[in-house]
Design brief:
The structure holds 2 protein chains of 2 kinds. Chain A has 16 helices and 16 strands. Chain A has a 4-stranded mixed sheet. Chain A has a 3-stranded antiparallel sheet with strand order 1-2-3, covered by helices on one side. In chain A, strands 12-13-14 form a 3-stranded antiparallel sheet. The longest helix of chain A has about 35 residues. Chain A is of the alpha+beta class. In chain A, strand 13 and strand 14 form a beta hairpin. Chain B is built from 6 helices and 7 strands; from the N terminus they run βααβββαβααββα. Chain B is an alpha/beta fold. The chains are: A alpha+beta, B alpha/beta. Chains A and B meet through helix 1, helix 4, helix 5, helix 6 and strand 9 of A and helix 1, helix 2, helix 3, helix 5 and strand 6 of B.
């Protein structure tokens, strides 16, 4: 049982809710239970939406899945497309992609890392860091940033635009395109498109580097505060390349404990469920994954940028690697666990993405026209794993001889961070709320901690709740269309 | 590309936005207007939106709704928007007809939950049932079945150019029109 997850008794406690959590993707709320002296007895992040993708994907043709599962998320659709298509490659009998197809998929993926990290940092999180955690709430948004820091806001807008244009050139659309298909990709990149993307890439690398420096500068203004805000020790997990490099498209799973020691390494993606398992709790739609060998209490972990820059041994692009070394040196060479350090790590990855995009555009094979691999034996079951902007994303499918999906299981990046986000909420509640007069600004501190994880709450929804209430659906004339009341029990 | 009329509205406009049972893709498409968002900021403020910290919708000129209606909370949010927004717009496939999440509609909701929560979980399988969680509806409903809707913009998501064309028409006092190139359903 985790401290502050369950109040011993709810008698005499008052409930404060942050509902909805804003400047995040999807639906979440935080509830706090406090006594008369404002001591916190319980703090929870609830995910309040259920869509049931895993169930209704069953029965659909396998080739449709990469396109449909994108609709889990409008910020990171490319991740879902690629994780699904990596599984469907194997199911359809494509063991190997052509060099051009793999490079185009990587290009699209790094375009997405860049745009997603930009939208998170500039559009969603930067108002807290640049304007203040308890600044005027009606101005605490991207337009407030644009009014005070026009150059920073513009660079954020253009970094995101560039990443979106990379995606559009590979997949035909900025959001929910059709680039990757089982066996390869559906479209070549033309010389004209490549040249257009090349034109701005050096500027993007410069701006991404400026963004890393901006976060580092913010940290050096109050290092103790930024290091300790929402800090707690945690294990971390990500894919890494065969040489130990930061690897976002394909690799094996590695987990380190809070001191940096290896828990497992080189774990093949196909056997993820030998290493990981999921638990359900009654008060949230989001499951709780953890490392099977360690159990639920000790086995939870972090994923995403802060985990990735520390699970890997190095970053293969020079500017990002230099910034990673700065980041580690600023922590005295020990693993760093402060929640706000996610932003610093995220911008290091944005820089790495921009450098990688440049390298891919300079590769002659990126404009190749050999797009589909050699087809071999069909399979019934496969797992696709990718490092999405928010962390490790696992798609697992079984497909029958009739080409229809028989089973689908998803462990989404944000779900991997479920316990970590709850720990961050509780850490901040202890430090800032406990015993104090609760103000809007103090409550925003809790949201600041949640935002650092860049949660994608639509992705992560798999369940339902019960409420003692009745919902009437009426049409525009006021006539009753249907009535639903609480009427089922957890079987 | 349309520009705003040189005759700027007398008073600043207020725009409210919400995602119900959607994927946030329509909101991302709105951000895909890129630097034009700074144009918009010259004449409009955002009220409740995932991009601001305003938690409840106040009186607004334009309300943009993404996503279908999947649970009791969506119903409350949608009614709050209808009561406060002069013009309410269904943005994207899910708001208009339920979209992809409506693929759950033929499945009994109890079966669906048992499948996701009890059959794929090794530890502590149970259907979450805390009173803090909103009640799920039996089906995903399009928003026009709950409130009156003034306009619908199709697409999954509608492109940034379609959203821009629509908003510039509406703000400029013209009847919003999307030509063939802007009119798509995927």
């Amino acid at each position: 049982m985790f401290p502050l997850e369950n109040a011993e008794t709810k008698q005499g406690l008052r409930r404060i809710a942050i509902d909805p959590v804003t400047r995040v993707e999807g639906h979440g709320k935080v509830t706090l239970l406090l006594d008369d002296d404002n001591h916190v007895h319980q703090a929870r992040l609830h995910i309040v939406e259920f869509r049931g993708f895993e169930a209704f994907i069953e029965g659909r043709p396998y080739w449709e899945v990469p396109v449909t599962v994108q609709r889990l998320c409008g910020i990171c659709p490319v991740s879902h497309q690629l994780a699904a298509v990596k599984a469907m490659d194997l199911i359809a009998g494509y063991e190997r992609l052509t060099p051009t197809a793999e490079k185009l998929r990587r290009l699209m993926h790094y375009g997405q890392i860049l745009q997603s990290h930009a939208v998170h940092f500039f559009h969603l999180a930067s108002p807290d860091l640049l304007l203040g955690f308890d600044s005027e709430p009606t101005k605490r948004n991207i337009l407030g940033v644009a009014a005070q820091f026009p150059d920073i806001a513009k660079q954020g807008i253009f970094l995101r635009k560039y990443g979106q244009e990379v995606i559009r050139h590979v997949s035909g659309k900025r959001i929910h395109g059709v680039g990757a298909i089982p066996g390869g990709v559906s479209k070549a990149l033309t010389d004209v498109e490549r040249d257009e993307l090349r034109r701005d890439v050096d500027t993007m690398i410069q701006w991404a580097r400026d963004a890393v420096r901006l976060v580092a500068r913010i940290h050096t203004t109050h290092p103790e505060f930024y290091d300790s805000f929402g800090e707690f020790r945690a294990s971390m997990m990500s894919l890494v390349g065969p040489d130990g490099a930061l690897e976002l498209y394909d690799g094996a799973l590695r987990a380190r404990d809070a001191d940096g020691g290896l828990i497992f390494d080189g774990a093949p993606c196909a056997s993820y469920n030998e290493f990981l398992q999921e638990e359900v709790k009654s008060w949230t739609y989001m499951k709780f994954p953890h490392i099977r060998a360690l159990g639920a209490e000790a086995g939870w972990y972090r994923v995403g940028p802060l985990a990735r820059v520390q699970t890997c041994d190095f970053i293969a692009t020079p500017l990002a690697e230099a910034e990673r070394k700065n980041f580690l040196a600023a922590g005295g060479g020990k693993p760093r666990h402060g929640t706000l350090l996610y932003h610093w790590a995220r911008m290091i990855e944005a820089l790495h993405a921009a450098e990688t995009i440049r390298d891919l555009l300079d590769d002659v094979e990126i404009v190749g026209t050999d797009l589909i691999g050699e087809k071999g034996e069909r399979r019934e079951e496969a797992v696709g794993v990718i490092e999405a902007p928010r962390g490790t994303l696992i798609h697992h499918y079984r497909v029958g001889a009739d080409d229809l999906v028989k089973y689908c299981n998803l462990i989404v990046s944000t779900t991997n961070n479920n316990q970590a986000m709850n720990e961050a909420v509780r850490s901040v509640a202890r430090s800032f709320i406990d015993g104090n007069e609760v103000t809007e600004g103090l409550l925003n501190h809790i949201e600041v901690a949640i935002r650092a994880y860049d949660p994608c709450l639509s992705c992560a929804t798999h369940a339902i709740g019960q409420m003692p209430l009745q919902v009437d659906l009426v049409d525009s004339s006021g006539a009753l269309v249907s009535r639903r009341a609480k009427n089922f029990s957890a079987a | 590309m349309n520009a705003f009329p040189s005759q700027r509205p007398e008073k600043r406009l207020r725009i409210a936005t919400a995602t119900l049972g959607g994927c946030f893709g329509c909101h991302m498409s709105l951000l895909d207007i890129d630097e034009r968002i700074l144009e918009l900021a010259k004449i409009a403020d955002f009220d409740r939106s995932p991009f601001t910290d305003i938690k409840h919708c106040g009186p607004s000129d334009i309300g943009l709704i993404e996503g279908g209606v999947t649970n009791s909370e969506n119903v409350h949010v949608l009614r709050e928007f209808r009561a406060n927004c002069r013009t309410l717009i269904a943005v994207g496939a899910c708001a208009i007809n339920g979209g992809l999440p409506a693929q759950r509609n033929p499945i009994d909701i109890g079966d669906l939950l048992r499948e996701v929560y009890c059959e794929r979980v090794d530890e502590n399988p149970q259907i979450p049932s805390d009173p803090e969680l909103p009640l799920l509806l039996d089906k995903v409903y399009p928003i026009h079945e709950i409130v009156r809707v003034d306009y619908a913009i199709p697409g999954c998501p509608p492109s940034a150019d379609a959203l821009w064309k629509f908003l510039t028409d509406l703000i400029g006092g013209r009847t919003p029109r999307l030509d063939y190139a802007h009119f798509r359903f995927d």
